[in-house]
């Protein structure tokens, strides 16, 4: 091998130079600090000299000092985006003084500052680093790692960490840091150390020198090293050697390189997290001194290294050393593995969660003093059990040791540099990087400038593919691995002289291999090999300084010219060159842009050799050659091609193939100047106007062609006619005879590098040729490649390959006949690969045999190169042969993998990639094929590029899957099968949250309401388009908006009587307004339900809250009536709770998927104090929608410390609802502060308002819902009967607190019944029963006795339970605990009394609660009929009470009719409410009729005679309860009858209608239109618990009443809401539409399985009741949602506003446009039944499809034109017929196939087929049409599916047969006979003959000669002999007459 330092002619072209100035430098000039003054020192001299005369020069001189200049530094890297995001910009991190600038920019965009930081002290270092933090998802979910990208800024005493998310950390440094390095796990710190700090005595332990920090909130921990000792065992100790220096770290892979300044050697380590056993060994080392691994007692790394001899190296590894300096390898066992008995204690900060505020990290690093290492001032404060070298204290005076610091990271030794005997000091590597050569071999390279040495270690890691080396003569040389590629030519720079006085020391011998005979500690599959290059890089100590060396003077270029001083900042395909001009000695940074994959160290292999702009055929060929050749030869081949391609003035796109062929053939030994067809492969003109392309001369000696060219030249003719020639009597020189007359015998150069590999190269290029035949876009490349293959096949004498190529391209074969002579002796030297086959592999032939059902041999393919071949073959094997194992990893039956000993890892990846994904549902072979194709990345673009015959089976599988696809397939599958509706549906699921699905999809053309309505009523965000379809026959939505609006003044219509004075009239109007205001203040609750989750706010705008207008307008003058006039008494704080509910309604509008954050929530806080109540409700609404979890803890603390009661209530309830059933500890602590019972007995008593306590108690129930937490349950059980305390403590509104405690207890033990594990000693049911019926008090806990030992001074209850206080809470607690348990023993406790005596002891309201609780427990016994409701009434009441519809009131002296009647109505109301719970959201017709009947009866009773006996308040209460029950059943349906009832109650504004009744009516109205018809109620346990809290059947008397029930929980009903609306949207027009659905229901105990049909948009039943949802009808494509596989997909639809994308079939109209189906576009386009395509009008094609390609085809190829010929008219008719059938059968993708078949047949008829490519496709189409797979499916189904209904294919087949048979009759039989007998064929017959042979699968002459067919006399003998060749019978019928020598027998 020639010396690699020889100057070669190869030159690599680079891009133009552009001046590069760090962007941070310019930015810092304008920075507002003193840095911009100091930066003037860094300005180039040209700028300084250009200042104003001498003054500028003097100013510059004044700034010159003897002090060191201000240091600046910068780093460049490729831009880093989000995960999976590819960004096109570079990032720069610039440091100067106290400023750090992080900027971004690219070639096309100007640089901008991304972040800038100004520190308090000078910045020592700035670097990028990523930290991993653990995200806790709660107690039910697992945690995961999140990477935080950050910038670390090192100062003298601290390190600042700034993340891209805005978090800032400050970590104090406990010691002086020499350098900080980024790693995979965090930061590594090198401590400044010196030998003086180590004590002389051996017992003293050295201090650690390398530390790690995994996160800024973690403590800095020492690094641990693990390596083998002399005895083979492993040792684990701290890294504590002051002679070690880190020179390089890498994240991927996690490695680190160190340098020993004493031994002058480099070591490579792997960096990983420490194991627990290793931590124990380090922390407890003295206790384990008896173990074998600690025999070596040396603690110092230096001592340990000196004790290791050359013969017993513990880290020997089979490293191969390519070095000219021979030395025996000696490896280092560990970097001064030192031990200590104890470590300093770990700080408290390390225990903090990393998700806490970053500000907590400041000044809290408790371990700073313990790491206060200093080499000059010993610190006596460091406490250690082992004697500290810097401590003068005795052991007795040492402070007790705290918890030790646990090490986090460990390093393992991987490689040790062989130390040379002549190694100089200060030979530390100045640059380390990872590179990969062109064949994928990886090297870890480090440059030792002092030795002019670049060492390359073979390393299994993939990274950059080339490296740029700066030689001593100023040349830039490109290397790949250890191989030299060539010099880099840079326009604008003069070429450096090749004669330099100080030449490089060159090795005397080539690169030699010296293996290291040692055993490696870390075992790897591949050894680490070392290559040492004596690099011509001069010693550059500091790139910022200019050295005057003699080498500059010896160069021959001009003194004023720029030369390259250094290379830096390699980013992608660009590099920064530091140029130095000797005259000015200024430093200019120049960056080379658009370097075509040359001057860079970070260029992937694919980009280097296979430029994205290069031709794909060249790419494929290079990949194949690189794969099959040995690595050493492959590198040389690629270098040769790379140098040729990237030469200055390189080729254009069209000449690239010619250059490649010439380069390859030259390397194979061909003389391309002697071959006829390669003489025309001249390079095209160069793109560069300066440098002409240079063609490499094959040899220095001339040839005859040179002399002949000279004789024919114009110069020679002029010389012969010159006077001088005649004067000298020169004879004329005759030209050589013509070239054709000279027998040309061209031979190959056997010394060429690729000569021995010609067979291998030929075979892989043949496979590439077959691969390119599968790509329609590579037809040109296929035609070019076949010429090269023909030459090789002809020279290798492969007749079968020649015949194969002739059949494909007969016109090309007959044009190239020149061959070269290869002697048999030379052939014997060629490497014959085992995979080489004599018969050519044909992908088309393989597919044809597969379609015919013949046995097929494995097809050879190249992994990673012939991917299309692999994909097509496995697709045919799966779909046509039915072999599922073919795609599950066992493909050896069909594929023969060509193995060249390389790419083993890639082969394994290919095997894993082609495995079928089994988790997706796939029943048929077609579905399995499509799923497998999408898993391999196959797309529609790939399908369109396949030839139509090859793609036809895949298209057929797509067509089969399109009809009934599974709903759980991914988006890629739907995209491939052409289902745009399902594709968009699957894509919407992955959209980022925060985007409005409705606003993006549906238009807003439908008017929002009437013109008189304002936009600020809070209901303008509703989706009116969907609601107009749901309720399309009336204006009920507008009516609901009118009823629920509160922003307009109410109408105060009071008639002034004559006897009423004006003052009295004003008072009367204000009293009337006060009554109306009771209604206005109650309606926000209903509006919140109506507008539930309908708004998607903009994060930059505040959310408007509709005004709660409490004024009125009095007709006829429309005067304003106000309550603030003072004429009447208005209750204090009357509107407080109304404003709160108004804010809740505004918060509930925000959809859960909205993108809001903590800043936006705080931004909405009003400045007006009067709006504080609304904002409090707004916070609660955000909590109910789940957004309050985003509120920062600091903001929550700020809100609570304000002391605003309503804000505290809203915040506590909101946070609790957002953390439902999570047992979140932070929320628990937050709530416990407001609940005295959860505080310790000795805690300070806090003045917490009563309502806040109630809210906190309810919040505890929400947070611990369903958890059965014992302590919480015990406290809540006691709080139900909390007695009043002294001095009026717990004396006001005790009922609401007890009720809240009971509801919270019920939620904690929700639905557990008797399964409350661990609480049997509490006797919860018995205690609740005692609370319900009364009795003696029992204190269960000591805490309760301590708190309530002082009785109340005002309320004397004694030891008896106050049932009026405790009964409601206990009753509801029992109902929730035993919910749906059907426990009869507990339900009997709740049965209504059946005697008159017992009835007198129970309040009528409690009977309602008992009935409700009893029915909820006996859930399955609830029936939707009046008989069941009446069955809950005891017999005594049923027989003696007054009926509701009684006309007269009877009298009785024995019975209290009032008690009986009130008990009767309350029991009826309780049963109705239970019926509402049982059938909530079901729209059950029987339940609706039953409840509607009782509602009408209660309405009549209010005005009947029984009203006086029952009491108007009681009747109104019961009526409100029944109305709510009715609304619960019909929730979300907007039932018109229920709306009429609500509107009737809305108009009742008399004195008898208080605030609570209005609230109940609006709650009913809100439930009826829940979420604008998009939501309904659920019947889950959690939903029922929330409804019990919100719909508690005791309503407040006024707006400030919270005595019996806390108003704050009235909005909890939204927790029970469930999205149920399914709203179909047309995927083509983005409009909501009607859609018939078919839903099979699951069977229950009341009914069997049934199928329900409805028209969407509509509400669905609860999902657990459904088995399937199916789109019904012929107008839309079928969609089936199988709920038996799970409801997650349907829930995702419903959560996105229920949008379900559907697609109309061709020619269909929507049900809104054509309800009856009489206006179908398909019916309009067909005139009658028999006309079909003849009546088709291309003008209406847009009605069938929206595909732009189909529309364009109809526009340009199907429209009739005037004065066209008959032939063109026939073509137009044919195209129209094809278009009609393709569109109506929903397979327009078949249109190119049919057109291609027609055009191919027409070209064959005109005998214009110069290649058989299209005929092969026709053959594959016909064979697939006749295949067994398709025919069996056609027999099962009447329609033909993918194929046309007409006889198009049979007609095309007959046409082809007729054309070829006619050719046989017209003399083609002679040509066929000549071919079969091996005779020359007439040239005019070759094209058609090739078509005939291909179409009829005729064997080659060589195959036929083996069967001896000449003596055959009968047709049966022919069939017998041809059966082995698999020739079809139809071909035998045409060949038989030729073999039987009886042409007359040929029958057509």
Q: What does it look like?
A:
With 1948 residues, the protein is of the alpha+beta class. Helices cover 36% and strands 13% of the residues. It is built from 68 helices and 47 strands. The strands form twelve sheets. A seven-stranded mixed sheet has the order 17-18-19-22-15-16-21, covered by helices on one side. A six-stranded mixed sheet has the order 23-24-25-30-20-29, with no helix packed on it. It has a four-stranded mixed sheet with strand order 1-28-27-26. Strand 23 (431-436) and strand 24 form a beta hairpin. Helix 41 (1294-1308) packs antiparallel against helix 56 (1581-1590) and helix 54 (1536-1547) runs antiparallel to helix 55 (1555-1568). It is globular. The relative contact order is 0.04.
Q: What Rg, in angstroms, do the CA atoms define?
A: 45 Å
The best one-word shape is globular
Report mean pLDDT, rounded to a whole number: 76
SSE-based structural type: alpha+beta
The rounded distance between the terminal residues' Cα atoms is 67 Å
Helix content: 25-40%
Order of strands in the sheet with most strands: 17-18-19-22-15-16-21
Number of helices: 68
Number of strand elements: 47
Largest sheet: 7 strands, mixed
| Unreliable stretches covering 5 or more consecutive residues | 1-9, 44-68, 137-141, 285-401, 497-560, 582-613, 683-698, 738-744, 901-909, 990-1001, 1003-1014, 1726-1735, ...
- Beta-strand content: 5-15%
């Amino acid at each position: 091998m020639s010396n690699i330092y020889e100057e070669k002619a190869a030159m690599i072209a680079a891009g133009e130079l552009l001046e590069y100035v760090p962007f941070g430098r310019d930015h810092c000039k304008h920075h507002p600090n003193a840095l911009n003054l100091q930066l003037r020192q860094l300005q180039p001299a040209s700028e300084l000299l250009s200042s104003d005369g001498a003054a500028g020069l003097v100013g510059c001189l004044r700034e010159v000092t003897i002090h060191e200049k201000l240091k600046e530094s910068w780093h460049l890297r490729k831009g880093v985006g989000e995960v999976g995001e590819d960004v096109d910009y570079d990032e720069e991190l610039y440091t100067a003084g106290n400023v750090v600038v992080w900027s971004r920019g690219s070639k096309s965009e100007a640089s901008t500052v991304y972040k800038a930081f100004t520190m308090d002290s000078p910045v020592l270092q700035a670097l990028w680093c990523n930290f991993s933090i653990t995200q806790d998802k709660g107690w039910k979910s697992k945690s995961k790692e999140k990477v935080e990208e950050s910038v670390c800024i090192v100062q003298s005493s601290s390190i600042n960490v700034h993340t891209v998310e805005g978090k800032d950390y400050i970590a104090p440094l406990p010691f002086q840091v020499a350098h900080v390095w980024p790693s995979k796990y965090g930061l590594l710190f090198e401590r400044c150390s010196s030998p003086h700090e180590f004590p002389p005595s051996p017992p003293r332990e050295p201090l650690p020198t390398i530390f790690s920090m995994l996160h800024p909130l973690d403590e800095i921990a020492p690094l641990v090293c693990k390596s083998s000792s002399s005895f083979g065992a492993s040792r684990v100790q701290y890294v504590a050697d002051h002679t070690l220096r880190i020179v390089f770290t890498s994240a991927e892979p996690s490695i680190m390189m160190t340098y020993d300044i004493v031994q002058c050697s480099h070591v490579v380590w792997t960096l990983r997290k420490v194991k627990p056993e290793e931590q124990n060994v380090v922390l407890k080392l003295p206790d384990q001194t008896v173990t074998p691994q600690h025999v070596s007692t040396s603690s110092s790394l230096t001592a340990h290294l000196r004790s290791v001899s050359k013969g017993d190296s513990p880290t020997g590894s089979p490293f191969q050393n390519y070095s000219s300096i021979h030395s025996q390898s000696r490896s280092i066992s560990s970097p001064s593995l030192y031990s200590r008995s104890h470590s300093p204690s770990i700080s408290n900060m390390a225990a903090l969660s990393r998700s806490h505020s970053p500000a907590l990290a400041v000044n809290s690093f408790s371990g700073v003093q313990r790491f206060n290492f200093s080499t000059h001032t010993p610190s006596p404060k460091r406490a250690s059990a082992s004697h500290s070298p810097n401590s003068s204290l005795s052991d007795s005076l040492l402070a007790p040791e705290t918890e030790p610091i646990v090490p986090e990271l460990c390093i393992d030794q991987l490689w040790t540099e062989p130390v040379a005997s002549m190694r100089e000091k200060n030979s530390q590597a100045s640059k380390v990087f990872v590179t990969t050569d062109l064949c994928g071999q990886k090297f870890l390279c480090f440059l030792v400038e002092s030795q002019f040495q670049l060492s390359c270690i073979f390393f299994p890691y993939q990274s950059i593919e080339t490296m740029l080396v700066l030689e001593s003569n100023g040349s830039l040389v490109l290397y790949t691995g250890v191989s030299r590629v060539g010099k880099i030519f840079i326009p604008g720079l003069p070429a450096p002289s090749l004669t330099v006085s100080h030449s490089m020391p060159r090795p005397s011998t080539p690169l030699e291999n010296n293996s290291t005979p040692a055993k490696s500690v870390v075992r790897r599959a591949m050894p680490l090999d070392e290559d040492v290059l004596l690099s011509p890089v001069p010693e550059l100590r500091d790139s910022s300084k200019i050295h005057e060396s003699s080498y500059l003077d010896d160069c021959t270029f001009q003194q004023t010219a720029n030369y390259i001083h250094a290379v830096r900042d390699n980013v992608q395909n660009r590099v920064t060159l530091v140029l130095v001009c000797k005259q000015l000695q200024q430093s200019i940074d120049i960056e080379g842009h658009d370097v075509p994959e040359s001057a860079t160290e970070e260029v992937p292999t694919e980009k280097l050799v296979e430029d994205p702009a290069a031709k794909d055929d060249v790419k494929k060929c290079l990949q194949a050659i690189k794969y099959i050749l040995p690595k050493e030869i492959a590198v040389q081949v690629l270098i040769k091609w790379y140098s040729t391609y990237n030469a200055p003035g390189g080729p254009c796109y069209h000449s690239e193939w010619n250059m490649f062929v010439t380069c390859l053939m030259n390397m194979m030994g061909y003389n391309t100047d002697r071959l006829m067809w390669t003489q025309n492969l001249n390079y095209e003109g160069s793109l560069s106007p300066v440098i002409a392309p240079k063609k490499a001369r094959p040899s220095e000696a001339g040839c005859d062609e040179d002399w002949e060219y000279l004789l024919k030249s114009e110069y020679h003719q002029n010389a012969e006619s010159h006077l001088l020639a005649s004067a000298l009597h020169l004879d004329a020189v005759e030209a050589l005879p013509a070239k054709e007359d000279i027998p040309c015998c061209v031979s190959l150069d056997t010394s060429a590098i690729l000569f021995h590999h010609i067979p291998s190269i030929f075979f892989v290029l043949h496979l590439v040729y077959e691969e390119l035949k599968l790509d329609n876009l590579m037809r040109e490349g296929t035609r070019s490649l076949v010429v090269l293959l023909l030459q090789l096949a002809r020279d290798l004498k492969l007749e079968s390959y020649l015949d194969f190529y002739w059949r494909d391209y007969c016109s090309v074969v007959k044009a190239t006949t020149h061959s070269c002579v290869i002697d048999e002796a030379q052939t014997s030297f060629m490497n014959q690969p085992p995979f080489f086959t004599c018969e050519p592999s044909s992908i088309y032939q393989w597919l044809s045999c597969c379609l015919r059902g013949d046995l097929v041999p494995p097809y050879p393919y190249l992994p990673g190169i012939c991917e299309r071949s692999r994909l097509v073959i496995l697709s045919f094997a799966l779909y046509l042969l039915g072999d599922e194992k073919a795609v599950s990893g066992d493909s050896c039956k069909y594929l023969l993998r060509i193995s060249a000993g390389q790419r083993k890892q890639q082969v394994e990846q290919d095997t894993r990639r082609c495995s079928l994904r089994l988790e997706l549902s796939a029943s048929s072979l077609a579905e399995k094929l499509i799923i497998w194709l999408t898993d391999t990345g196959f797309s529609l673009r790939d399908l369109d590029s396949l030839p139509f015959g090859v793609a036809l089976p895949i298209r057929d599988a797509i067509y089969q899957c399109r009809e009934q696809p599974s709903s759980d397939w991914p988006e890629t599958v739907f995209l491939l099968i052409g289902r745009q509706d399902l594709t968009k549906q699957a894509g919407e699921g992955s959209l980022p949250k925060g985007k409005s699905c409705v606003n993006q999809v549906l238009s807003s053309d439908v008017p929002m309401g009437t013109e008189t309505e304002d936009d600020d009523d809070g209901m303008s965000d509703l989706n009116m388009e969907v609601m107009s379809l749901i309720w399309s026959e009336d204006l009920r939505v507008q009516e609901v908006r009118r009823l629920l609006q509160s922003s307009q003044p109410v109408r105060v219509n009071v008639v002034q009587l004559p006897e009423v004075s004006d003052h009295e009239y004003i008072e009367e109007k204000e009293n009337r307004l006060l009554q109306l205001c009771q209604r206005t203040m109650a309606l926000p609750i209903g509006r919140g339900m109506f507008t539930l989750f309908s708004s998607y706010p903009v994060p930059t705008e505040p959310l408007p809250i509709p005004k709660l207008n409490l004024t009125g307008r009095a007709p006829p003058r429309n005067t304003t009536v106000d309550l603030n006039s003072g004429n009447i008494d208005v209750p204090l704080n009357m509107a407080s709770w109304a404003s709160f509910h108004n804010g809740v309604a505004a918060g509930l509008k925000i959809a859960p998927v909205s993108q809001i954050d903590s800043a936006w929530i705080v931004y909405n806080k009003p400045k007006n104090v009067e709006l504080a109540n609304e904002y409090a409700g707004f916070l609660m609404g955000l909590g109910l929608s789940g957004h309050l979890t985003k509120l920062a803890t600091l903001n929550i603390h700020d809100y609570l410390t304000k002391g605003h009661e309503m804000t505290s209530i809203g915040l506590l309830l909101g946070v609790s609802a957002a953390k439902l059933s999570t047992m979140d500890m932070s929320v628990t602590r937050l709530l416990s502060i407001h609940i005295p019972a959860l505080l310790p007995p000795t805690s300070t008593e806090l003045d917490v308002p009563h309502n806040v306590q109630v809210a906190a108690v309810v919040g505890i129930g929400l947070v611990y819902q369903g958890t059965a937490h014992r302590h919480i349950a015990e406290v809540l059980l006691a709080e139900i009967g909390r007695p009043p305390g002294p001095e009026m403590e717990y004396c006001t509104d005790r009922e609401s607190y007890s009720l809240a405690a009971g509801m919270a207890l019920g939620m904690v033990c929700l639905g557990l019944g008797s399964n409350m594990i661990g609480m049997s000693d509490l006797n919860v049911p018995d205690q609740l029963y005692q609370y319900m019926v009364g009795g003696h008090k029992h204190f269960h806990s000591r805490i309760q006795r301590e708190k309530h030992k002082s009785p109340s001074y005002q309320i004397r209850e004694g030891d008896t339970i106050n049932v009026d206080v405790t009964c409601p809470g206990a009753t509801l607690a029992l109902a929730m605990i035993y919910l749906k348990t059907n426990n009869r023993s507990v339900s009997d406790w709740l049965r209504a009394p059946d005697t008159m005596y017992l009835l007198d002891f129970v309040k009528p309201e409690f009977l309602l609660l008992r009935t409700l609780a009893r029915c909820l427990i006996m859930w399955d016994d609830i029936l939707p009929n009046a008989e069941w409701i009446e069955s809950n009434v005891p017999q005594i009441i049923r027989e003696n009470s007054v009926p509701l519809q009684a006309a007269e009131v009877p009298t009785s002296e024995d019975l209290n009719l009032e008690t009986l009647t009130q008990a009767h109505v309350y029991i009826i109301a309780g049963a109705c409410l239970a019926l509402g719970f049982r059938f909530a959201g079901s729209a059950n017709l029987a339940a609706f009729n039953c409840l509607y009947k009782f509602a009408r009866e209660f309405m009549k009773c209010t005005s009947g005679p029984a009203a006086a006996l029952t009491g108007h308040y009681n009747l109104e209460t019961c009526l409100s309860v029944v109305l709510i029950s009715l609304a619960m059943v019909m929730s979300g349906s907007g039932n018109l009858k229920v709306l009429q009832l609500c509107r009737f109650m809305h108009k009742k504004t008399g004195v008898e209608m208080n605030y609570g009744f209005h609230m109940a009516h609006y709650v009913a109205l809100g439930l009826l239109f829940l979420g604008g018809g998009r939501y309904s109620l659920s019947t889950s346990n959690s939903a029922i618990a929330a409804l019990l809290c919100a719909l508690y059947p005791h309503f407040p008397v006024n707006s400030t009443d919270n005595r019996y029930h806390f108003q704050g929980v009235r909005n909890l009903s939204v927790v029970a809401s469930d999205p149920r609306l399914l709203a179909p949207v047309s995927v083509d027009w983005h409009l909501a539409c009607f859609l018939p659905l078919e839903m099979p229901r699951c069977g229950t105990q009341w009914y069997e399985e049934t199928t329900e049909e409805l028209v969407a948009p509509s509400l669905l039943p609860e999902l657990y009741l459904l088995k399937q949802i199916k789109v019904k009808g012929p107008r839309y494509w079928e969609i089936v949602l199988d709920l038996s596989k799970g409801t997650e997909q349907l829930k995702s639809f419903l959560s996105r506003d229920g949008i379900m994308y559907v697609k109309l079939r061709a020619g269909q109209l929507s049900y809104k446009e054509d309800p009856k189906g009489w206006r179908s576009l398909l019916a309009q386009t067909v005139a009658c039944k028999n006309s079909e395509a003849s009546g088709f009008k291309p003008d209406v094609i847009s009605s069938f499809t929206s595909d732009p390609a189909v529309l364009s085809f109809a526009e340009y190829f199907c429209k009739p034109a005037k004065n066209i010929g008959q032939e063109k008219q026939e073509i137009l008719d044919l195209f129209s017929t094809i278009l009609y059938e393709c569109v109506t059968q929903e397979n327009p993708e078949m249109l190119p196939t049919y057109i291609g078949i027609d055009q191919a047949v027409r070209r064959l008829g005109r005998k214009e087929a110069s290649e058989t490519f299209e005929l092969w496709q026709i053959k594959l189409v016909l064979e697939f049409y006749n295949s067994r797979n398709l025919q069996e499916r056609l027999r099962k189904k009447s329609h033909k599916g993918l194929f046309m209904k007409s006889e198009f294919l049979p007609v095309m087949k007959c046409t082809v047969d007729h054309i070829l048979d006619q050719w046989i009759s017209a003399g083609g039989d002679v040509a066929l006979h000549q071919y079969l007998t091996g005779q020359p064929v007439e040239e005019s017959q070759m094209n058609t003959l090739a078509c005939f042979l291909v179409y009829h699968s005729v064997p080659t002459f060589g195959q036929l000669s083996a069967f001896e067919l000449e003596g055959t006399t009968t047709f049966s003998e022919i069939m017998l002999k041809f059966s082995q060749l698999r020739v079809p019978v139809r071909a035998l019928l045409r060949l038989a007459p030729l073999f039987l020598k009886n042409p007359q027998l040929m029958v057509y």
